[in-house]
Amino acid sequence: MAQNRQGPLWLLRILSAIILAAIAGIHLFLVVDGVGGLLGTMFVLNTIAGFVLAIGMLALRGAWLRTATVLSLLFVIASLAALLLALTVGLFGIREVWSFTLVPETVIVEVIGIVVLGITSGVELRRRPQLA
Question: Is the dihedral of CA 102, 107, 110, 115 positive or negative?
């Protein structure tokens, strides 16, 4: 019976890892494309965090997986919030515009990420721990 419930959870974990890797990849592309300074540094940190969390979604189990799912959700929310702040009032003196490279695509990917990671976190947190 537990094996039947693992299938949907694995699918959610794989989707979550793909989204986290996509977010990391977008930020890596922007750094390689020439974004520098403070924004470039934040993008490098975002890239590292995204790839580490993507690996964690696939490799971790138990309480570590629960922690990774919640951290991943918070990571994507924070990433989208930072972009929206930069687009509206500015963030750390940086004002972003919708026409900048990959901004609309990033918003779409991160909104989808919030939905998928919200579902993944909910499923994982409601799941009963399995005894070895």
Answer: negative
Which among 46, 17, 18, 15 has a CA at the least distance from the CA of 30? 46
Give the position of tokens 């989204």.
19
pLDDT in tens, 90-131: 887 778 888 888 889 999 999 999 999 999 999 988 887 665
Contact yes or no for 50/75 (Cβ under 8 A): yes
**What pLDDT band is residue 8 in, cutting at 50, 70 and 90?**
confident
Q: Model-level pTM greater than 0.85? A: yes
Q: Long-range contacts of range 83-90, CB-CB < 8 Å, 24 or more positions apart?
A: 83/107, 83/110
Q: Which two structure tokens, joined as six digits, stand for 16?
A: 């979550």
- For residue 96, count other CB atoms closer than 10 A to its CB: 17
Dihedral Cα 110, 28, 70, 10, nearest 10 deg: 90
What is the four-CA torsion angle of 38, 42, 44, 50, rounded to 10 degrees? Answer: -170
CB 110 within 8 A of CB 82: no
Q: Decide: 107 and 24 in contact? Cβ < 8 Å.
A: no
